[in-house]
Amino acid sequence: MRSPVTGIVSLIILFIVLAVGYSSVFTVQQTEQTIVLRFGEPVDVVTEPGLHFKAPWNSVINVDKRILDLENPSQEVIASDQKRLVVDAFARYRIKNALRYYTSVGSIQAANLQLTTLLNASLRRVLGEVNFITVVRDERERLMSRIREQLDKEADGYGIEVVDVRIRRADLPEQNSQAVYDRMKTERQREAAEFRAQGDQKAQEIRSKADREATVIVAEANSTAEQTRGAGDAERNRLFAEAYGKDKDFFAFYRSMTAYENSLKSGDTRFLLRPDSEFFRYFGSANGRQPEAAAAPKQ
Q1: Which of 17, 88, 127, 143 has the smallest CB count inside 10 Å?
Q2: pLDDT tops 70 at residue 18
Q3: For position 294, what pLDDT does the model report?
Q4: DSSP letters spanning the chain
């Protein structure tokens, strides 16, 4: 029979073997790369996923090899035309050299802090060389590419590769934006007033031209009317003269009837004339002659 001591020793040996075996094995995930440390000093980097072995006294640190995001707080940048810009940017990066990354920064938090400083410096350098319009409209894509190249070059010393840099927003500060808006509003109001003044001037010119043409047309029409009226009066006088030459008594009678008609149109038949006036010559005699004076009394 085995003694109890032998069983206990066997269990202890088995436990030690299991502990040593467990501490000699580590697993690398597909999204990770692992640094093997010996007493705190890195001795190897494992990038292949799967089960791996190490010395029991060695330790491991897992480093993410996926693309990571770097959110950068909004920064004020001064463009080359001395315009102040509020720039909101972010970057994406991955750890390409785990050993260099571990010996230089050591953690994601420290890497983000260091990259934020480098990104802000690169933003100020690149955007400070161009004017406001270039940043917000004309060449933003090219500027982001330059910032990424500079940041990637500086981050290489930390074992980091910068994949992309993007500028979400590049705009004037709120107070500057309001001042620009007010200036643009004033400029548009000035242009509108100028257009209205030009329109009023043009309208005045058109009205003046129309009034001048209307005056000329009316004058020409009046001249033609006067000429036509004069020709009509001349023809009428000719006809009257001709009629007068043919029958003087009838012409005198006609003129008297016309005078009676014109005088009695208003409905007022009162006249301040002598009864024997020439105007009433046809009232007392059908042939228009004055009645002969009464014979003088015989002596």
Answers
A1: 17
A2: no
A3: 38
A4: ---HHHHHHHHHHHHHHHHHHHHTEEEE-TTEEEEEEETTEEEEEE-S-EEEE--TTEEEEEEE-S-EEEE---EEEE-TTS-EEEEEEEEEEEES-HHHHHHHT-SHHHHHHHHHHHHHHHHHHHHTTS-HHIIIIISHHHHHHHHHHHHHHHHGGGTEEEEEEEEEEEE--HHHHHHHHHHHHHHHHHHHHHHHHHHHHHHHHHHHHHHHHHHHHHHHHHHHHHHHHHHHHHHHHHHHHHHHHH-HHHHHHHHHHHHHHHHTTTS-----S-TT-GGGHHHH-TTSPPPPPPPPPP-
pLDDT digits (tens, 9 = 90+) for 187-200: 888 899 999 999 98
Mean pLDDT, all residues of the chain: 79
